[in-house]
UniProtKB/TrEMBL annotation:
Native organism taxonomy: Bacteria, Bacillati, Bacillota, Bacilli, Bacillales
Superkingdom per UniProt: Bacteria
UniProt keyword annotation of Lyase present: yes
Name listed for the protein in its UniProt record: Amidohydrolase family protein
Pfam families linked to this entry: Amidohydro_2 (PF04909)
Residues annotated as domain Amidohydrolase-related: 3-247
Length: 251
């Protein structure tokens, strides 16, 4: 089985559910974990990363993802929330009732610190719900790899997934955290082949999770990196499906 543990779905011409399902089938991917996309225009991602452009009041379209997983049993959803919202905890509670299975945070879009009250409240509640917390990190004091690791240490009952193997191209801080922390995982999308290979060699396959970062990257291309790794079939199976199935408590 192959599960794409990180894809963005949005009501856009380049990131819609129908297009993703076609690519998913072509690549031989069986199931997927979707989060809302299009809060930023990924076609101009460098503008946001460098600070030349600022997000224009990004609001995650969780309803679009909800419709996707309710219409397609092979899709699972992570709800994306803005920790600055005063009612963010009740939003997470509502998301659980709607069928979401995890939380997606976006510090690039919502400009928050991992040490903020909103984030810590969400992290604690996710532990109670059995929700993994997925986030990328950025090059800023409040939303760095170190701060995300610190958050994971603060809430050992909650599982944390750092997107894109951490802050690229080879985040040793994220790798070291995954090696020693039971609740800390690395997601592979847009990560480079060598770093993924070295990570398996250093910490094993049980802490890596395959994701595609659709529509910024093609699911088949991201999958090919994992298929080309010089690892055993058992290790590949853990990365491609078993680890995320464990976190989502899937049968």
């Amino acid at each position: 089985m192959i599960i794409d543990a990180h894809t963005h779905l949005s009501n856009t011409e380049y990131g819609n559910t129908e297009t993703y399902l076609k690519l998913m089938k072509e690549a031989g991917i069986d199931e997927a974990v979707a989060v809302p996309g299009a809060m930023l225009d990924v076609r101009k991602m460098t503008e946001y990363i460098t600070g030349r452009s600022k997000p224009d009041k990004p609001v995650p379209d969780n309803l679009y993802v909800e419709k996707a997983f309710k219409a397609n049993q092979q899709i699972h959803g992570f709800i994306c929330l803005n920790p600055h919202d005063k009612d963010v905890l009740s939003q997470l509670e509502s998301g659980k009732k709607q069928g979401f299975k995890g939380l997606k945070l976006s510090p690039l879009s919502h400009q928050f610190s991992f040490a903020s009250k909103g984030v810590t409240g969400l992290a604690e509640l996710c532990g109670n719900y059995g929700f993994p917390v997925y986030s990328h990190v950025v090059y800023s004091p409040g939303a760095s790899t170190a701060k995300f690791v610190q958050l994971a240490k603060q809430f050992p009952k909650t599982n944390f997934i750092i997107g894109h193997m951490g802050f690229g191209p080879a985040d040793q801080e994220a790798l070291e955290a995954a090696a020693v922390m039971q609740n800390f995982y690395l997601e592979t999308s847009t990560g480079n082949y060598l770093h993924i290979q070295e990570s398996v060699k250093k910490i094993g396959s049980s802490k890596l999770i395959f994701g595609s970062e659709y529509p910024l990257s093609h699911p088949g291309i991201e999958l090919e990196k994992v298929l080309k790794l010089n690892i055993s079939d058992r290790e590949r199976e853990e990365i491609l499906s078993q680890n995320i199935k464990h976190l989502l408590q899937m049968k």
